[in-house]
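G.,

No rush on this.
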Amino acid sequence: MTGTGKIEFTAHSATMLRERRIERSWVERVLTAPDWQEPDPTDPAAARAFGAIAEARGKILRVVYTPIEGGVRVVTAFFDGRARKPSRSDQ
């Protein structure tokens, strides 16, 4: 999801952000200007947005979301140590 729009957090995602010490502003930044995105392979209604977070030593934040009218609903977010930006040949 690039651009602006409403960002809604589920109760689960809000809990996960607190437990994982992930700032809401980081999630919002990744959603509005992701480094890359991909469909979620386990849920056709969901997508994944990824972005490096400088304040977290450059770790990659994965945000799983579903589209809603006027924006997105965040399902969960976590730092993904295995995430790698696809090369141009993979896209």
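When you get to it, here's the other one too:
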Amino acid sequence: MSPLKKKKLSKIRKQLDKLDNSLIKIIKRRTNLVKKVLALKEKKNQIVDKKRIRLILKNIRNKSIKNNIDPKITNKIWKNMIFAYIDYEKRNFNKKK
């Protein structure tokens, strides 16, 4: 790789790092909302709402297409996020106050 391309790559990676820092803050806010949702659930079987998951993924697909983003990318991201939070809720269900 040429020195110029290395410099450009470094600059883009710094932008990605900055964006990642913003995403971490958003994930923290989302986690706090998930904690509030979990506090309202009375039974463990209320954690997975398949109808809501389908609706979320459908909406994300539509928004991705509208914003010219590959829907396969956003689908994978949201599925992973949804299942990570389902796992979080299951692990923390009995720890609710």
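The radius of gyration is 18 Å. The mean pLDDT is 96.

Enjoy the weekend,
O.
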